Amino acid sequence: MQRTVEEGRGPVRYGPPAPEPGLPVVPELSAVLAAAAGRTDPEPPGGGPALRAAAAGYWQRRGLHADAECVAAASGAQPLLFALMAAVGGDVLLPRPCPAWWVPQVTMLGRTAYHVPTPAECGGVPDPFALLETVRRVRDEGGDPRLLLLCVPDDPTATVAPPELVHEVCEAAVSEGLHLVSDETWGDTLHRPQETVFLSPAEMFPGRVTVLADLAGAYTPASWPAAVARCPLTGPGAALRARALDLLTAIGAVVPGPVAEAATYALGEPGPVAARIRTAAALHARVAAAAHHAVLASGALARPPHAGRHLYADLGPLRAGLAARGVTDSMDLEEYLSARLDSLVPGGHRFGDEMSALRVRIATAPLLGSTPEQRLESLTAADPLELPHVARALSTFVRAFDELR
């Protein structure tokens, strides 16, 4: 990832990838893919019956009514969201900060993206009053807002918005006639699932919300691109899905056959996959908590991470120490910390924050070890923080922040 201001380069080609799990693939999942390696035909646009039925079952087990006819699948979340946004039409509202790839997609469609500030307690959803004000202002200026994007278990902040706030935001959006797309990629990575309440917007307003999930969040490697969406079980929802399938067909965003077999298996949540999801979430929770403590101890700020494999830090209180090192904006901060920690630490400008804000997203996978063997050892250890390679990585992390005081 390089600077976005040289040679006309833009954030589309140089945006940061989603935080990786940093763990070997579940052997049983690899076996399914290997067994399907001889399959030469791709899935049909939107996914075949088996894959769509598996996705419907996944949502039904979470209390969200679905059937195969309301599901669409594609080769990753990016083309799937692209098709959904094109199908809905109009301008797009999204929280600030938000996933790095959202705004470039809106721009590629020739639409306008309007950021709405998030409340103090979490990211992923806009402040409901700010949302209403933004919608009215945009319409007064001749805009056509039709779609709100949400990320309740959030990238980049790793927070989970409380149900009451999600309801207020959804209620405000529905009152203004907006359709909602809820990106729930990180819904199965909750650090403390018994304590954290994650309620999908589709449970509150099932007829106005489309749910999107990238399987790379918890189920399959990012190198096996597959994502699924659940459209509303209504006439307008069926029309939305049909338009999205036309667009997926046009851009050829079909799931490769062997990947579809593995995704179908994973969405059934067999024992080995379910166990890996639980243990991986617990591992990243331990490491994220230690990283969060180090960030706060340095005098920087960060909301406690509750999901995912990352945290979002605000180094504004350390501005003086950073300025002495030539770091004055988030692009400088990205380069400084990436070099200091020897891993990618994207700045907040990638996620829609102001360049002057000294914010970064920090991934936890680099703290698990540098080899597959070390990372697997971290996964199976009773206390991963006591492993020498994890302790060394955390020590380097702590020093990088302590020296900025």
UniProtKB/TrEMBL annotation:
<feature type="compositionally biased region" description="Basic and acidic residues">
    <location>
        <begin position="1"/>
        <end position="10"/>
    </location>
</feature>
<protein>
    <submittedName>
        <fullName>Aminotransferase class I/II-fold pyridoxal phosphate-dependent enzyme</fullName>
    </submittedName>
</protein>
<dbReference type="InterPro" id="IPR015422">
    <property type="entry name" value="PyrdxlP-dep_Trfase_small"/>
</dbReference>
<dbReference type="Pfam" id="PF00155">
    <property type="entry name" value="Aminotran_1_2"/>
</dbReference>
<feature type="region of interest" description="Disordered">
    <location>
        <begin position="1"/>
        <end position="23"/>
    </location>
</feature>
<dbReference type="InterPro" id="IPR015424">
    <property type="entry name" value="PyrdxlP-dep_Trfase"/>
</dbReference>
<keyword id="KW-0032">Aminotransferase</keyword>
<keyword id="KW-0808">Transferase</keyword>
<dbReference type="InterPro" id="IPR050596">
    <property type="entry name" value="AspAT/PAT-like"/>
</dbReference>
<dbReference type="InterPro" id="IPR015421">
    <property type="entry name" value="PyrdxlP-dep_Trfase_major"/>
</dbReference>
<feature type="domain" description="Aminotransferase class I/classII large">
    <location>
        <begin position="44"/>
        <end position="193"/>
    </location>
</feature>
<keyword id="KW-0663">Pyridoxal phosphate</keyword>
<comment type="similarity">
    <text>Belongs to the class-I pyridoxal-phosphate-dependent aminotransferase family.</text>
</comment>
<feature type="compositionally biased region" description="Pro residues">
    <location>
        <begin position="14"/>
        <end position="23"/>
    </location>
</feature>
<dbReference type="InterPro" id="IPR004839">
    <property type="entry name" value="Aminotransferase_I/II_large"/>
</dbReference>
<dbReference type="GO" id="GO:0008483">
    <property type="term" value="F:transaminase activity"/>
</dbReference>
